[in-house]
Amino acid sequence: MNLPFVEDRLHWMKRERIWPNGLRYLWTDALGVVLLVSLHALTGKTRFLDEAEWVVEQVDRVLGRPRGWRIGEAPDRDGQYFHYIAMWLYALATLARYIPDYRQTGIDRAHAIHEAFVQPGQGVLWKMTEDLAQSYPGCGYGALDAFDGYVSYRMLDERQLAREIGEMRSLIDQMEPNLMITQDLGVGMMLWMSHFHPDEAWAQSQQARCLVMLDHLWVESGYFCREPGLDHLRFAFTNYGISIGLQAVGAMPERVERLHAYFDTYRSGDHYDREAITHVMACNAHCPGYLLGDFSANPTI
């Protein structure tokens, strides 16, 4: 837990109008809301909770649609991603720990989008048009989307979303035995999702496979590469996602420490150096907070 790093990075992002006062992007905003609620829990400062509510209001204003949320504010971020929406629902469930009305908001939106994205017995559509009328051209089923929905729905309300959770679980049981994730961020996010239900067979199986895959992705310079065999291709935000996953399952602490040391000062020389996703995920990695299932509102710092 590195609160000075996080507060310094948040101050810098705000000064540079990167986040939360930059362009809206649903994935980054979701992780940012979880971060702000976590900081409220850690510090007791109400300004973090107020800012989390402000982000939610801005996301609804800019990205909100009659059903769901647009991917991002930029012109090329049209359509809707299910896994982004699932992460946003997780953020609403996190905020609902302190402001309960957000739980019902998340439940109602889950009901509203589920049937558009989910085709029972087949899969979850990865990306849809903005009105949820059809699958986005060229896009099919997502490999991790059923897991995303399963985790977020259960975080919101297992009773009110029982049917939707059951459909996601059926898809998981259907696809998981043959699922091998090879891309860095996917591995990190699967590790993270697996830690919420560690006694379930899919979680145990995927956790074991992901940890083996990370051995293939590790580069001794201090980072995980994008895919096996692509040793020189690395991204800060995806490595921070792996850090979150590893912290969630309590594995490879020395590699977590080394990748933080590597990427906390790393500059790629491209647009990612100023992308909000890079820096918000850096903050999440240093302060995972409510991304961790066993996080207490009053932990020892």
Write the layout of secondary structure elements.
Elements lengths: L2 H13 L10 H18 L2 H17 L17 E2 H14 L5 H17 E2 L3 E2 L2 E2 L16 H12 L5 H14 L8 H11 L6 H17 E2 L3 E2 L11 H14 L3 H11 L12 H11 L15
Antiparallel strand pairs: 1-4, 2-3, 5-6
Helix pairs in contact: 1-12, 2-3, 2-4, 2-12, 4-5, 4-6, 6-7, 8-9, 8-10, 10-11, 10-12
Give a quick precis of the structure.
The protein is mostly helical and 301 residues long. It contains twelve helices and six strands.
Characterize the structure shown.
This protein has twelve helices and six strands. The chain has helices at residues 3-15, 26-43, 46-62, 82-95, 101-117, 145-156, 162-175, 184-194, 201-217, 236-249, 253-263, 276-286; strands at 80-81, 118-119, 123-124, 127-128, 218-219, 223-224. By secondary structure, it is mainly alpha-helical. Strand 2 and strand 3 (123-124) form a beta hairpin. The protein has a domain at 63-179.
Distance between the termini: 7 Å
Task: Give the count of helical stretches.
Answer: 12
* Secondary-structure element order, N to C: HHHEHHEEEHHHHEEHHH
Task: Using the CA coordinates, give the radius of gyration.
Answer: 18 Å
Determine the strand fraction and express it as a percent band: under 5%
Q: Strand order within the widest sheet?
A: 1-4
The main β sheet shows up as:
2 strands, antiparallel
Estimate the mean pLDDT confidence: 96
Defining key terms:
6-hairpin_glycosidase_sf; globular; two-stranded antiparallel ribbon; Linalool dehydratase/isomerase domain-containing protein; mainly alpha; 56% helix; single chain; 301 residues
